[in-house]
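Morning run. Coffee first, then this:
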Amino acid sequence: MTRAAAFRGILRYLRPQMPLVALSLVCAAVSALAQLAVPFFVGQAIDCIVGAGEIDYARIYRLFIVIGACIAAAAAAQYAMSLINNRIVYRLLSRVRQDAFSKLQRLPFRYLDAHAYGETGGIVLADAEQFSDGLLLGLTQLFTGIVTILGVLVILFLLRWEIALIVLCVTPVSLFTARFISSRTYKTFKRQAEVRAEQTAFIDEAIGNLKVVKAYSHEAENAAVFHEQNERFRKCALRAVFFSSTTNPTTRFINALIYAGVALAGALLVISSEAFSVGLLTSCLAYVNQYTKPFNEITEVLAEFQNAIACAGRLFTLIGEEEEPADDALPDLGHAAGEVALQAVDFSYKKDVELIKGLSVSVPAGRRVAIVGPTGCGKTTLINLLMRFYDVDGGCVSVDGKDVRTVTRRSLRKNYGMVLQETWLKRATVRENLCMGNPDCTEEEMIRAAEEAHADGFIRRLPQGYDTVIGAAGSLSEGQRQLLCIARVMLCRPPMLILDEATSNIDTRTERLVQDAFARLMEGRTCFIVAHRLSTVKNADLILVMNAGHIVEQGTHAELLAKNGFYAELYRAQF
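And here it is:
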């Protein structure tokens, strides 16, 4: 995303808070004008000192009271502006993060599969934080700075137009220098944000798979990869800091030239004109300082602001990603009978790599269908199509004669119960995890489902039983986690089941007990069982044998063995 597009995105998010922005501008104007009044009154006070014994103390005291009031008003306005800007920025940050997270819920799986989870998480968390910090700094300095610059120019023209012209003539040089450097700063900070996201993704991957890393003694290789990424980040950061740090001293040098020019011209005017007093020169010099100060402050925060815009660009790119088409207007599937059909289905994850071509199969309601085949043959892909995690490229998938694309995804998925080889439990109590798919269930129903899954025993041994908080990992073994996932689907009692190596992490004795529970659960339900161990699919009503995206054989266990084909080869390889 370009810098201009990112800036437009920021303005779009600021639009609902325009009343607060306007109030912040008013506070900035009050603060700036109050500060601008101080040099004028200081100059008046200096002119009250004419010579020895010629000092107008009464007027000086009055001027000091006015100066004190101006300083107090400026401080109060500045404090109020800081509070308002904090509210603006953190409301905006909250909304941007909410929109980014909501977008993640609506993104197609194609996007999530193509981007590392750590990188995506880094955009929502780290980039959003950098964005808010830079924006807060930018708002605080920019509002006051702009009002100060305009106010000083007006006052200088009113006091002495020659001084104002000197200031105006040199100012474009300062602006051009700042713009020249900032354009390069944005590119370097954008690259820095990209490398930081890449590094975050690698750290997430390395920590998540630390057992595998240690098991294969891969620590040195990971350290080398991280070192290479760290070096790239260091170079990007140094380059960004170099460009951003050159802005301030450059503009300070130019502003020093402005000050010197005004001092020289003012001194000549004091000598040649009685109308231009020492007090007035003092005021003009103070105004020049106030004029150049915003430029210095703005250039100081320019690097942070450029970083904020770069991070905002990555956030808005995520928020602007094409999401799954909304299907709220479509009818619900209702409670399905469980008749599933795939008709001439074509599908591939990448357009140039064919995976499934012309696949057709019909499954009557209540049948147990096993899907077997070598790794990479398309078993999990078939499940993705049934659940409509992906849409087919050609043909259609139907449930009870309805194309799944003509009903809402939510109603389709509510008719499926799913137990995967990779377990997922949220950080919550055991009770909340079990009741995720059926929040209205009773205590008795929940306990009965846990008993059927043979999970009740170890749950009651936990410190707080069903109210024990469990996390993503650590507190439970893989087998126990899988039993909880099985109990969760048993509590839902859906009309269709998908079991993808659902008992792979369970010991043989418990697996037999769970299989009995599954047998009771599967009665009268359409079931799709993905299995590598062919001993678990002997009792299936239909076995689909897949190879290279095609169903090469189908039938019962006995029929397929009698054919002495591909299934028989797989079976003999295992037994």
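The mean pLDDT is 81. Good start to the day.
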